[in-house]
Amino acid sequence: xxxxxxxNDYILHNESETTRLAFQHRxxxxxxxxxxxxxxxxxxxxxLQILDSCTADGLWxxxxxxxxxxxxxxxxxxxxxxxxxxxFPTDPxxxxxxHVQDVNKPWPEQWNEKFDLVHQRLSIAVSGxxxxxxxxxxxxxxxxxxxxxxxxxxxxxxxxxxxxxxxKDFTICxxxxxxxxxxxxxxxxxxxxxxxxxxxxxxxxxxxxANYGTRDDKPLEAIGKKSGLLTAQSILSVATTFxxxxxxLPKARVSDIKAGLEKExxxxxxxxxxxxxxxxxxxxx
Length: 285
Ligand SMILES: C[S@@+](CC[C@H](N)C(=O)[O-])C[C@H]1O[C@@H](n2cnc3c(N)ncnc32)[C@H](O)[C@@H]1O
Known about the structure:
There is one protein chain. The relative contact order is 0.17. The chain has a domain at 22-163 and 182-216 and 273-282: Rossmann fold (3-Layer(aba) Sandwich), CATH 3.40.50. It contains 8 helices and 7 strands; from the N terminus they run H-E-H-H-E-E-E-H-E-H-H-E-H-H-E. The chain has a 7-stranded mixed beta sheet. Strand 4 (115-121), helix 4 and strand 5 (144-155) form a beta-alpha-beta unit. It has helices at 17-31, 59-67, 70-73, 130-142, 165-180, 191-197, 218-239, 251-265; strands at 49-53, 77-82, 96-100, 115-121, 144-155, 201-211, 273-282. The chain is an alpha/beta fold.
């Protein structure tokens, strides 16, 4: 008998979520100078086993595949996992599979120490409190082969000094939303320590700055703005339902942010930035 799918309490689950993520992917990739992997793994050494946890529709996997020569990419095996099966591509290539997996639940035993690279982006908050996050990170590390790498990428609690006032208020609402699910926008700041505490070596981290406002590259500027506005729509549709006690800003202000951001983003020039932290480490041989 097939088991029931896990209960999905992902707070941003809606019909435009994968569109929002695709725009955001472009902006983050640009901020990483076109690179998806900063961990110093040799992606040209085939075959590799690569896992993308909380993959949504697997865009990171597809983009990584197309960044490699086809004869190399086709030798690697890619696995994408997520709690939401409806996001998965319906017809992935033969070397790519998707599986429903809750990061807060035990992983399949046969995946223990299987992967040369474990990747997870923009999902650290889904585990909730610090203890649950540490446990989820420990479980991800257990999937890494000795000598293999793990890379975690997540949003930091930061806007640039000159960013627009509505962008800044929207970011405050985003932090409130993360707190409302029992997590914190600061969680990614603890990942490096966590990696080191769990015995990883060659642990490094860097911050990348993503531009969601005016820039010289106009097509990318349009994508960045769409990404920011779609994210605001998604976050604010939830944050506007919160009682005042869990909001930092007055409720009346929160209700105005969506329209205010649309106006602010249509002024030229407009400044809107977020930072993401990229952390990677290696499991000793
Ligand atoms: C913000 S999206 C990030 C998607 C993708 N990694 C990216 O960078 O675009 C978070 C993803 O985590 C998934 N998710 C939420 N809770 C989860 C859980 N407990 N276990 C596994 N995946 C979960 C959501 O369905 C969603 O696809």
